[in-house]
User: Fold these one by one.
Assistant:
Number 1:
Amino acid sequence: MEQIESIFGISISGVEGLDGDINYSNRKFRITGSDGVKYILKIFPDAQEWMLAEEESIILDKIGHELSFQVPQNIRLSDGSMFFDFEKDKAKLLSFIEGEFMAKVRHSPKLLISLGEKIAELDLSLRSIDSPVFASRHLFWDIQNAHLSLPKIPLIKESGQRKLVQYYLDRFTENVLPIQHNLRHSIIHGDLNDYNILVENDEIKGFLDFGDATYSPLVNDLAVALTYIMLNKTDPWEVVLPMIRGYQKHIKLTKEELELLPDLITSRLCISLCNSAEKKHLGQDNEYVLISEKPAWTLLELWSRTNPIKIKNCFHEAAGFPLVARTPKKHQVDVRAKVSGKSLGLSYADPIYMTSALFQYMFDEVGNSYLDCYNNIPHVGHSHPVVSKVISKQVRELNTNTRYLTDSFNTCSEKLLSQFPEQLSKIYYLNSGSEACDLAIRIARTVTNRKTVVVLENGYHGNTSTGIEISSYKFDGKGGRGIGPHILKLPLPNLFNGKFKTAKEFAYHAMDAIEQLPEKPCAFIAEPISGCGGQVPLAGGYLSYLFDYFSVNGILTISDEVQTGFGRLGKWFWGFQMHDIVPDMVVLGKPMGNGQPISALVTSKKISDDFTNGMEFFSSFGGNPVSCEVVKSVLEIIESEDLQGNARVVGDYFKSQLQELKDSFPCMADVRGEGLFLGIEFLDKARKPDKSIANHVKNKLKDEFILVGTDGPFDNVIKIKPPMCFTKQNVDLFASTLDRILRSTDAL
Ligand code: PMP
């Protein structure tokens, strides 16, 4: 330090190391002179850093004078130079700016307006700078290079968080990367995080650390600042309006810049989160490196739950742009009524006009977000980035029919069949659960040369003619023509309020009924937990009692796993495993393609051989490479995100929370199901099915932005079957909302 005293002619009374500060790349000290004047000493350990520091100094020299706030000033030696040898390194002195870090103060609207304004002022002054050195840099922190963080995604340990970052970086690649070169470019500060902004008396005092300056879209300075100001806020979108209003006092945002801002902010969050993951992976993490990690996750997660239209409109409003207006719902309702038959229904008397969805959230046209507790088709979550990528990649490569050999068909089949007991070794692909059930019956009738199918009361197995024929839910329901020939309907083995009290009684009754038929049936079809029957698990032991009898009598067994398959039940990957039996055929659908239309029938070699009678099996779309790649990705995601484990843990928690509520509300007569396939049955005071309260609850939940459905023969059961990434926090929200609804319901 004596060296500095002699070079600069100051006497030093204090030195404080700032190493390990948020600006961790250089060695930094705060030096206080005996006259109370403070300086920053920066030491540059290698030539490159020194060269960049030289460039930074040139910028500071050029912009320092005309601004209404401060930036660090270069302190020169008597010969006018800035750098001096300090031990083995180069060093320089900068002026010290008094003030508090933006990160440490309350953000009043006035301060935020002032911040926006000063950022614009800073950017305007930087526009005149021409710095080939900074312009040629390719910094991963620079939002325009967010794609450089993509390879770091695997370093994020938690699978849900990985998925989130993948989703938002994909948005960068799709929405920003192709058009960012058209935006206004300039030398920008590049790192306006809240530790590089100083505040005094609710005013912006200055900006620090120009070491990340780079040539980038102008709007990125505003985007970085917004990112950090939005952290740790209950309502992060509140800061957008004052900051943009302030910014626009000097720089008017273009339409393109404004539209991209939300994606630029999420991109910067992702860059920071990928950097934290990398630093942890390399063991280089410390308090300062990870300072924004937790709030960044919180913000990104909140972002993913927020309706994109709401976010967009918040930016539009702030910038004075017209709000996004979707086609009015009334118009959609009218068009729908015009083009579609009335037998195609809509959920809710006032239907929801959905515009997008992400993971377990769905978004409507006016900016609302719904917690999806109902849709089991997006099994691994709505808009899962891996599924989206697989579809778009395969669609560009090959999408053809199964009369050609393809990798996709074979690898998908092997992967899927590896989830089954060994004897179930053959697969047929179709496009819907209905088609797969239809094929199951066709196979059973062909193989056994018999006709009669045994079904369960209130079962549903599809919309084809055969589907309706075997679905009591349809033939016994509204508009149904009653049971047809060649169908034997058995009572649903429901231990809550079914016809008998034990599985054995149900099974004996079934065998008796079959014995009375003029010919033995060809097949028995059932779901392991009856969905349309009201989420009723078949009585434990019922199927194992019957399966020996079926086997002896050559009656083929079909497990309809359209709803229960793919790990939804938590403890089991397939519903038949819950009943400790192996059926002859298994029907798969809904979750298999996460929304891509694909279904399958899985059976044994023997049955498959017996079905081969010369008539070809072919489905134009079934088993095409796009669908097969999607199925593979669904299986991989279930594994990599441990969604079956999640269904078990969150499902058990869900059930326990509902059971607790059941103790307080007698109308909740039964809570049942497994994993994330649950039902709540409502009864009235006379213990009769209470459709009206189930319906009331469903509609009230909708008013609170939670989606469920009702079902069962009396429509008095609330069905819960959410995307498998459902969380305990989602359960808590559901349970507290249900509690509130039931408390304020007069009928109780
Ligand atoms: N089986 C079951 C158990 C189902 O729940 C459904 C659909 N709800 C089907 C078959 C028919 O599937 P899809 O709608 O894909 O034709």
Note: Residues 401 and 621 are 6 Å apart (CA to CA).
Number 2:
Amino acid sequence: MLNELQTKQALQQVLDSVELPKLTKKDEKVFLERLAQHFPSLIGQLHTLYGERYDFFLYLQKLVVVLAKAFAGRKRKWKNLDEKRLSNPSWYRSEKMLGMAVYVDLFAGDLKKLQMKIPYLKSLGINYLHLMPLYKAPEGDSDGGYAVSDYRKVDPKLGTEKDLAQLAEALSDEGISLVLDFVFNHTSDEHQWAEQARKGNPEFKDFYYFFTDKQEVEEYNQTCREIFPTVRRGSFTFLEDVEKYVWTTFNSFQWDLNYSNPAVFNAITDEMLFLANIGCEGLRLDALAFIWKEKWTQCESLPKAHTLIQCFNTCLQIAAPAVLFKSEAIVHPDEVAQYIDKQECQLSYNPLMMALMWESLATRETKLLTASLKKSFEISDQCSWVNYIRCHDDIGWTFDDAVAEQLGINGYEHRRFLNQFYTGKFDGSFSQGVPFQENPTTGDCRVCGSLASLAGLERAIEADDSQAIEHALKRIRLLNSINLSIGGIPLIYQGDELGILNDHSYLNDEFKREDARWVNRPQISPQAVALAETKGSYQHRINQDLKQMIALRRNHPEFGNAKTEILETYRSQLFAYCRTNAKGEQLLALCNFAESTQSIPASICDILGSRRPRDLLSGNQLVGEDILLAAYDVLWLKVTE
Ligand code: OTU
């Protein structure tokens, strides 16, 4: 490690030896100040990663030039946004925050048409829009765009780079923060880096992990998890033409980048800042757990993976500080937590809560949800969860087996049960999902399906069973209520606001057929939107329930920057939490995860200082000694006077 004096000298040395782009006096001051402020972190992090190398300083010089050029190329509009966000660093903890994730083509057609959907988004209250990967990608299967061939080119089917720039500005003008994917664990095999590497170009040959020795590949396979075992066993793909193995954690056309090479870090930082300069305010760090590899480890969530992300974040703080990182770690809860830090990822998906809400619906028991969130929900108050119910991927049952064990639940058996339940193979299940990536060795499996279908609406409609339909609608409302109120940014997945069911049309597409996740990537048709506006339809009810809760959320600060306490209800079907903000404003949420009526003594409200709070959802004030919750009911209790 370098001491303070050495760090200062290093910065001076860098500045003396490189040529920085021309900047205005004011901009130059801003840049140099930020660089000086963050240089100690930057050099420390880089030193941890690459300090052993003789050419360490050379890469450091090059990196500073990358940062300066990106800053120089950043539009005034985004530089102003940098200042605005820096002066209000917890802006994303507001009760006004509401996210949506959409595919440009499925939601709108293309980027131009998406711009015309801004009024729709605003009518829902959306101010955080995650656009699924929209970059140039291979024809045919591109893993839904997660195989990027060029970070700077827009997929021509979606429009042009200019369309994207215009959309970014239009969104920002309407107060909507754009979130883009930063797919940095791998590129597609059609990326020019991959093509050059394959040809043996010395500049790129170490951009990826190549092996000639089968034995070595087998050794890595012994300790690494298989992510897509039905695509290919192990984590490597043999390239016949060059007779080499290449590391491919996901599909064979997604080549893992080699971050032990500082040239890769610099090159990807350049791409990252290009994305930042489009005008996005969030980057979703795709598959971030896998970015650092070491022999005889699981090659997931290694300490240097964290250093690497911190280092990327430091680069953002210098060149584009308005941009936040969102962690996409769908892993063990303790590992998820390790990415959540102001210096690393300010935002993180909340896969534990997502999975356990579904778990509680299946079991009608909340003990695992309660115990797990008691342990893992609390995070730094400078960070925020991004809560979700469904997304474009599968559901993986990522709870902590040790917590389950203490409750008498065997993790392995329980996951088996959940997979059976949600794929409709369990007798009496309300759900209709599709299995994904069944591993023939471990028996592991994940589940796909839309919110409405997994919650029982599809089956209930098929059976024409009005009670089952009612229950399904209430399950959807229940999950939405938690998503919106427990604390964090709620992220709605496209179509869930419209009650869209599973879409099996992917089975007719040879490039999608093998990937069941497409069952939940439906086209959002004008008919689906119209149906949700038609009074009397189930979809209308789902939509209205959601809108009512969104309106309440926006208008009550307790839903924003506040602390969440998960409560013990001592009722196996009930789940409860209390939110308290700095002003002492409070909200108590009670949820019934069963179709039978449950009761709980009104003394649970003592945390609010009154046994007569009002339920914001129904408007009713509580009376009596016991609180009754009908099937899947939710209460949002607040002392109003
Ligand atoms: C992500 O997910 C994306 O969300 C997927 O759509 C991509 O296919 C994938 O990366 C590759 O880019 O395997 O099934 O444990 O679960 O990062 C989803 C983490 C995935 C992985 C997650 C990955």
Note: The chain has 22 helices and 24 strands.
